[in-house]
Amino acid sequence: MTGVPATLPLFPLQTVLLPGANLPLHVFEPRYRQLTVDLVTGTVPEKRFGVIAMKAPVAEEVDKVDQLLPIGCSAVLRQATRLPDGRYDIITTGERRFRLLDLDSTSAPYLIGTVDWIPDTRTPPAMAERIGSLADSARAAYRRYCDTAWEKGDWDEPADDTDPADLAHLLAADALLPIEDRQALLEETRAAHRLRMVYSLLTREAGIIAALRAVPAPASAFATKMNLN
């Protein structure tokens, strides 16, 4: 941890954002419309806010730390389109993980979190020599998953020069993984362990898809739409 807490506007969701992953959002609630305006106008510095997953069962109003998972990911606003009725379609990109320390639900229309940034753990020299082969195995699992789950041409593998420390998050970004698995990847600070995790997860999911002959839909696809915040 950095030891220097920061404040960050928060957008609680029923998903986990991973560093480097893109997250499109349709913003319709007034408090998060205001957050979008503040991001666009620069009222919120660097167009940065936090995405953090809500614990189950999901509460209609989030105002306590224990209603949220402990680790989230900062996001940077990349694009915002205002719709005629005042809603927004935005595109964001995950940046870095944080631990939620405290929650302020009164100072702004939206939630403000006190957070501590969580850097990666340094890779030991002995493991650094093996990380290339771990990355190759993870990429192979990703290709098998995508060949099974998606139509040819509907996916793109991360660039060859992607840092191994970033690779696992990017490989997992497009996979329909359960929220628990995505959260575990986010919380893991060891790059080599993340690569092992994503290899195992993508191998498992490819096997499930092949057996079902269908791509499992996320649980949210069957949920009744709720006004959660």
TrEMBL record:
SUPFAM superfamilies with a match to the protein in the record: PUA domain-like
Signal peptide limits: none
Domain Lon N-terminal: 5-206
Highest taxon of the lineage: Bacteria
Matches recorded under InterPro entries: Lon_prtase_N (IPR003111), Lon_prtase_N_sf (IPR046336), PUA-like_sf (IPR015947)
PROSITE patterns noted in UniProt: LON_N
PANTHER family: ATP-DEPENDENT PROTEASE LA (LON) DOMAIN PROTEIN
Protein name, as recorded: Peptidase
Species lineage: Bacteria, Bacillati, Actinomycetota, Actinomycetes, Pseudonocardiales
